[in-house]
Structures are given as structure tokens and as C-alpha cells.
Write a sequence for this structure.
């Protein structure tokens, strides 16, 4: 990330990148941050999560949840874009119960692009002011947290108007959503994600059956599906963003051996790990 002009707004909780000139480095932003990219000019085409192609044009926001792999596919020469990086902890702290909207849109409905509409111009001008290097306000943390809450709530408001967010009646309770969000957080923080459902249920002090019923009720998918999808995101990332061997990746992600890892990967991706790396690998700097 040293290629970017980064402002550390609140230690490592909130980072602001004024200009994404070297757009091929977009994937380096993923790590543990939720990323909001504002496209002001040109266009960007990315692949999100190893499968979905997303186009971003001027006036739109690209929303990438923490841990999602972003693969730039096409970036116009006249692109102008900035990015706001927010840690999971800060996102949850700022949004409170409204984190349910973000999680549903990002992880369940996979809505990654929204229109900024009329409010975005004002937000952009305010962003430049509070993240300026020239003068740091004495109440900078309070100002930034308030700004973050306003911005994220405006984004959530836009997400709520998306057709995919209103297609079905939600049978889950607030308590269900809280547990589901905790489950997603555990998955995000776990280096070796391919664990049994019972492992995550124990961490949440509930039974595996209860976790399964809640996850199914909130998201329509069972917890093992979430575990598999999250594991595959780490597989994609390590294959494309590092020079680690298949054996090293297998060990890092907690597989018993490289043969088992390769079989697991092929069952999910329909290609071998080496075939996927060959098709998607970027030069590691």
C-alpha cells in the first residue's frame, strides 16, 4: 500500500486514499478493511469474490466487504477514484444494529455497486476537508466518527432501496441477526476457516443445530456453505496475491495435506489450484 497517498484518519481503524491512480493495486486494499471506492471519472471493471464481474462508472460507489478478493479486469486511462478503508471493528461500532443491512447486502445479496445520487457530491467535499493533511481538527476522532456514521447510514439507505433487498419477507428476529453477524465476524477473523460447524457454535456458546437454524433463517444458507465460501476466498487470495506453494497454502489454511487441498479446491472451483493461479496470478511486488 506504499504506492498510495494514504491518510491514517484514526490509527489503523480508518484510512483514506485520495487517489487510486495505480488501479491494478486495488486488491491490496482488501485485507481486513471494508472498502468504499468513489469513482469520479472513467470506469473500472473488477471481479469480486472470484466470480462476479462488477462495473463502476462515475458517480457510483464500489462497496467491498472485508476479506473479499477484488480482481481488476479493466481500468480506463482517465479513471479518477478515491477510497475509504474501514476496519470491521469500526464499521460495527459506527453502524450498531444497522450492521445487519450492510451484512445482508454484502454477504447475502452481493450488492457491490450503488448510485451516489445527490448526496455524494456534498459527502465528497466534506471528505476532502476532514482528511486534509493541512489542518487536523482538535476533535478529529469525534468528527470522523460522526462523518463515518452519516456516510454509512446514507449508504445503508441506498442499499435498502435495492430491489434484491426487498424481494422476500425476512423471517428472522433481531436476536437471530445478532448471532449471524457474530458468526460472520468469527469467520472473518479465523485464519483457518475450514472448521466444523460445532467449532463456531462453541465459540458463540450455542448448539450447532441452533446455529444452523439461525443461519438458514437469516441468510437462506447453512453455516457450512458460509464456511466453504469464506475458505475459498482465502484460497483465491493466496493463489493470486502470493508466491506461496500449494503445500504452504494448504498448511496455512489448515488442510491435512496438499492433495486434500487440491481436491477440495477443484470440487468448489471446477479447476485445480495451479490452473486458477495460472489464469489469475498477478506479479507479486
Amino acid at each position: 500500500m506504499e504506492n498510495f497517498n494514504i491518510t491514517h484518519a484514526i490509527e489503523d481503524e480508518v484510512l483514506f486514499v485520495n487517489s487510486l491512480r495505480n488501479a491494478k493495486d486495488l486488491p491490496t486494499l482488501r485485507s481486513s478493511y471494508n472498502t468504499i471506492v468513489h469513482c469520479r471519472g472513467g470506469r473500472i471493471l473488477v471481479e469480486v469474490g472470484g466470480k462476479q464481474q462488477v462495473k463502476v462508472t462515475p458517480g457510483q460507489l464500489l462497496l467491498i466487504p472485508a476479506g473479499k478478493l477484488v480482481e481488476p479486469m479493466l481500468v480506463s486511462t482517465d479513471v479518477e477514484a478515491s477510497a475509504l478503508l474501514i476496519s470491521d471493528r469500526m464499521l460495527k461500532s459506527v453502524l450498531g444494529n444497522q450492521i445487519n443491512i450492510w451484512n445482508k447486502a454484502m454477504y447475502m445479496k452481493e450488492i457491490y455497486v450503488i448510485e451516489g445520487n445527490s448526496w455524494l457530491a456534498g459527502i465528497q467535499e466534506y471528505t476532502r476537508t476532514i482528511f486534509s493533511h493541512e489542518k487536523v481538527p482538535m476533535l478529529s476522532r469525534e468528527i470522523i466518527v460522526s462523518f463515518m456514521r452519516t456516510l454509512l447510514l446514507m449508504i445503508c439507505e441506498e442499499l435498502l432501496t435495492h430491489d434484491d433487498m426487498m424481494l422476500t419477507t425476512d423471517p428472522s428476529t433481531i436476536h437471530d441477526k445478532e448471532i449471524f453477524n457474530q458468526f460472520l465476524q468469527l469467520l472473518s477473523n479465523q485464519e483457518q476457516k475450514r472448521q466444523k460447524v460445532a467449532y463456531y457454535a462453541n465459540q458463540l456458546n450455542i448448539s450447532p443445530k441452533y446455529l444452523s437454524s439461525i443461519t438458514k433463517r437469516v441468510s437462506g444458507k447453512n453455516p457450512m456453505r458460509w464456511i466453504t465460501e469464506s475458505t475459498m476466498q482465502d484460497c483465491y487470495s493466496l493463489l493470486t496475491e502470493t508466491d506461496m506453494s500449494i503445500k504452504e497454502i494448504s498448511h496455512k489454511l489448515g488442510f491435512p495435506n496438499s492433495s486434500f487441498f487440491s481436491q477440495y479446491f477443484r470440487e468448489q472451483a471446477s479447476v485445480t489450484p495451479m490452473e486458477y493461479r495460472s489464469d489469475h496470478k498477478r506479479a507479486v511486488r
Q: What stands out?
A: The mean pLDDT is 84. The radius of gyration is 19 Å. Strands lie at 6-10, 14-17, 33-41, 44-48, 52-56, 60-64, 70-75, 80-87, 113-115. The CA atoms of residues 240 and 278 lie 9 Å apart.
